[in-house]
Amino acid sequence: MPPQDPMTSREYVGQISSSSYPDIKQDAGAQFVLESKGKWWHAGYHLTTAIVGPAILTLPYVFRGLGWGLGVFCLTVMGLVTFYAYYLLSLVLDYCEKQGRRHIRFRELAADVLGSGWMFYFVVFIQTAINTGISIGAILFAGQCLQIMYSSLSPHGSLQLYQFVAMVTVVFIVLSQFPSFHSLRYINLGSLFLSLGYTFLVVGACIYAASSKNAPPKDYSLESSGTVSAFNAFNSISIIAAIFGNGILPEIQATLAPPATGKMFKGLLMCYTVIFITFYAVAVSGYYVFSNKSSSNILKNFLPDNGPALAPEWVLGLAVIFILLQLFAIGLVYSQVAFEIMEKKSSDTTQGMFSKRNLVPRIILRSTYMVVCGFVAAMLPFFGDISSVIGAIGFIPLDFILPMLLYNMTHKPSKTSAVYLVNISIIIIFTGAGLLGAVSSFRKLILDAKEFKLFSNGVSD
Q: Phi/psi zone of residue 5: left (φ > 0), alpha (ψ -120 to 50 degrees), beta?
């Protein structure tokens, strides 16, 4: 990995005080939402919540499209590339800060380094699509978790999915009033433990199912058609990219108390330790037991249409509760960019965070945002297919291309150096993978379109 530029805390503080960042002092989004008070482990909590979520339950399905060898290979490579990319991005942020240009937003960093007005709006569009999409997805799938628990207690109950989505939205409205990203640190610590909790429950359920007399037959063969197999493979790669992506690392680094140099690397190590445990455990155990019958949500495999449950219902129920609780944390984390954009325009930094002047607009704007996300979630319960498209066209540019490009432009490594060649290779490979993944995701969206129904009572698989 490229070395960090050494700078002592005294040198750092002297340089920061000389520039003083007058714009940030007048920036309500920076002062209120992205306040810089956190430690490196707080950044680790935020990163883990942004990356390790219920989407990991899709990994056995991903392996279904790739097979054992390619599945493990792609998961490992994507993990290494994203860790490297996030590390480079943190170095770019450190570099700009030492030059007197502290960037707390991805869009401003990209526009500054690339020197192009259109890049600012490109990043705004992509990041907004990702963050809003994840917020909508969190509400939708939290509503589905409530529906699953309700159905198990009252199989013939009359409540519909959209009603559970409405309940979840109310909870999100309340939780969205946490004033800053930093104020979510303990919620995100809880999210970290929840991800470990349902991972161990799923692995235990897989071991139980594999040893059951009703264990499903194993078949690890791929599609016989080369074309279909290729589409499935690229769709699986897009899903892995979306699972590893976060797109908000600059905003997370902005929550660190200065000097931030070196702290993000420690946060990344914490996050990727959790990633290593959870991703491989779920992928390997789920695919081993259910092979090419793995569902896009592995929990569904434990409840076959015919026959008894393949795992104790209390284990599955506890896993669903853990997932439900973590979805609230995930939705809040990805809403912070929207909150920051809104409050940059609506709040007044000359008055306190909890003054009437700032509190009333915050409550109204955040509540409205959550209501809109909840309405879309209830109306489009097939949002998973849309999210895969967003992942292909959004996460890959933000997390697999821009960090390498920004590093090359700021640190200017020699064109014959290993760092430069690795970065260029990653840009080229993942540009191609992103385009092919987008095509595969659009194809699946079109094929599944006949099953889509507005305000349906079930989430499309």
A: beta
